[in-house]
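This section describes the prediction task in plain terms. A model, or a person checking by hand, is given the sequence of a single protein chain and must write out its three-dimensional structure as a string of tokens. No templates, partner chains or ligands are provided. The sample shown here is typical of the held-out split.
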Amino acid sequence: MEGKDMHLEERDTSLDVIRIIAIFFVLFTHTSNRGSKIYTNLVPGGGGYYALCISLDTIRMICVPLFLMLSGTLLLGKKEPFSVILKKRVWRIFVIIIVFSLIQYLQIIKNSELIFDFNEFIRSVYNGSVRGSYWYLYLYLAYLFLLPILRNVAALMDRKLFIYIIVVSALVDVLGLIAYEFPEWKNAGMGYIIFLSTNRNGYAFLYPLLGYGAYQYIQEKKLGKREYIFWSLVFMLVVCGCSWLVYNEYMNKGSYSEAHIWRFTALLTIPVYLIVYDIVRRARVPIILRKVLAFVSNSCFGIYLCENLLEAHTIKIYNYVYSLCGKQLLSCGVYLFSTIALGTVIFSIIRKVPVIAKYV
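The expected answer:
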């Protein structure tokens, strides 16, 4: 959400690329049986295509953690009085929740031929039921309220603290896995620290700190060969491990769940952040490409807010490509890129209006 108004020479293109990857996987998450959940309609264990699809469903969990890590990267090092946080940041998200919930609510009324009910609208805004994907806005609001505390913790951040947070998050995820596999252990003493898990319970405070720590870590020096190998192995082990857990649960229970897709997301996200950042930083990115990446990156938040409105148009592209090739994953990829492209064009124009640019 942050950093969108920087001039090109001030922008960190690595962060732009990470943000684009994040929005890509946000959209992929919401494709369900057309994309992220294709494997649920395939023969379990049925070859490489099945393995690819179930692995992508695991990988797409990096989307929200990446956004929060980016926010931690950009905000935790700043010094702002409480009044600025409340008036500038909290108020902005509050306005966005109200305005875009109203847009979505009016769309629902239009499609369902219902009558506007003010009390129902307020209730829907309060519980976040107008649009399910807006849960992130409420989570982000929680993060902003924690911002003064997190900034004080970030001031102490060094390589050791960064590694410590990673180890603790991994340990807690292991405890969560044990509690899930052995329900009778769920209320045991160790269960009390599961709230620190890097699933949704710990999103608002752990990932911003991990983002700030990762940024400091990567600024100290470029990744060496050993670090590339290490973080790549961590990423592959988590993908393979979580994918196997999902497959194994289906074989044992006869149904899929997302219980294991949420496992070890920190160990999945941090390698992506570090490796992508380092690769882009080393690359000589042409000015024109940096401008394109900046345009797309600036539009990511708007694309997220209006995803379903964009989908109403780009779903036709998915249907057309699928009718030609009959390949769901390829059709889904074309659909995702076309949605991002359409959203970038629309919001690049809309953001020329100063009042709107201030919010999206």
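For orientation: The chain is about 70% helix and 0% strand.
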